[in-house]
Amino acid sequence: MATEKVKVLIIGSGPAGYTAAIYSARAGMNPVLYSGGQPGGQLTITGEVENYPGYPKGVEGPQMMMDLKEQAERFGTQVRDGLVTKVDFSRYPFHAVVDDTHELEAEAIIVATGASAKYLGLPSEQRLMNKGVSACAVCDGFFYRGMEVAVIGAGDSAAEEATYLTKLCPKVYLVVRRDEMRASKIMQQRVKTNPKIEILWNSVTEEVLGTDEVTGMRVRNTKTGEVREIPVKGFFVAIGHQPNTGIFKGQLDMDETGYIKVQPGSTRTNIEGVFAVGDAADRVYRQAVTAAGTGCMGALDAERWLAAREHETVPA
Ligand code: NAP
C-alpha cells in the first residue's frame, strides 16, 4: 500500500488528543487522529467528572469524550480507529505505521497517548484478570453488586473507586500499604466516614485467592506481621498509571518511568516537529483539564513550528 501523506498526525484520543485536534483543525492543518487501543482514553472508563470547568452539575466521562470527538470532527479532523504501532523520527517527514500495516508520513506529530492502569504484578492477579481482578470499578463494579470487594491503593482513584463501590456492595475493604493515604483531604474524608468501607492500614496483598474466579485475598500487615485471608469476589487495583510511551523509547527523551520530557513551558520534545501532550508527558497533574490545556499548546506549537519551517524553506 502507498504511504499516505498527512500534515499533522495526532496519536491518541483522550482530552489532550482531541483538544490538539480541535485547535489544529481550526488552524487549517487537516489533522488525522488515531484513536489507539482505548478510544476516548481513560475518561471512557470513569464515571462522573465533577472537576472539569464548565460543567457545574458534572458530566459522565464517556459523554465528555463523545462531545470532544464531535467537536474535533466538526472542524474537519479525521478521527480514525487504529493503533500506531511504530514510529521513525530519524527521517523527515516522520514515518508512522498503524496496526502494523498502514504507512504514513507526517510533517508534524502530536503524541497524546496518555497513560494506563498499573497492576501489583502478582502472578495470581494476572491469572485472575477479568475474573474478579479489575482496574476499573466503574466498568466492572456492577458485576459484583451485593458482594464484598476490595480496592487496592490510597490515592484519589482508590478513594473514588471505593466510594463508588459502596453504592453496589455491602462491604468494601480498602487496602492501604502505609499508615496514611495520598488522596486529597475531601476524598479521604468520604472514605473514612463511609460505614461500608473498612480501611486495612499498613497492608500488602500477598496473593489474590481463587482458581477460576476471585474468592478472596491474603493480606499481610507489615507492622504486626499478621496475615489474614479475607473473602472477596472483586479485587479492584487502583494504584496509579504508567505512560503509554513504549513505541517512542529510544527516540523521545523520557524520565525513568517513561514520561516524555518536554521543554519547560512548551510541548516540544527532543525531536523538532514532534510534540508531546497530556498524561504521556505529565507525571505531576494528570487531570483531564490539564491534558486538554497541553493539547491546545501542542497544536499551537505544531502550527508555529510548521509555519517557521515553511518560511525557512521558501526562497526569498
Ligand atoms: P496516585 O495518586 O499515584 O496514587 C497511587 C496510590 O497507589 C498511592 O497511594 C500509592 O501508595 C498506591 N500504590 C502504588 N503502588 C502500590 C503497590 N504496589 N501496592 C499498594 N499500593 C500502591 O494515583 P491515582 O490515585 O490514580 O491518581 C492519579 C492522579 O489523578 C492524581 O493526581 C489524582 O489526584 C488524580 N485523580 C483525581 C481524581 C478526582 O479529583 N476526582 C480522581 C482520580 C484521580 P503510596 O501513597 O504509599 O505511594
Uncertain runs are none
The average pLDDT is: 95
Radius of gyration: 22 Å
Question: Can you summarize the main beta sheet?
Answer: 7 strands, mixed
Shape: elongated
What is the SS-derived class?
alpha/beta
How large is the share of residues in beta strands?
25-35%
Q: Helix-strand pattern, N to C?
A: EHEEEHEEEEEHEHEHEHEEEEEEEH
Number of helices: 7
Number of domains: 2
The total count of strands amounts to 19
- Which range best describes the helical content: under 10%, 10-25%, 25-40%, 40-55%, 55-70% or over 70%? 25-40%
CATH uppermost class of the largest domain: Alpha Beta
Question: What ligand species are in this complex?
Answer: NADP nicotinamide-adenine-dinucleotide phosphate
Give the gist of this structure.
With 316 residues, this protein is α/β, with parallel strands linked by helices. It is built from seven helices and 19 strands. It folds into two domains: 4-116 and 241-313, FAD/NAD(P)-binding domain; 119-237, FAD/NAD(P)-binding domain.
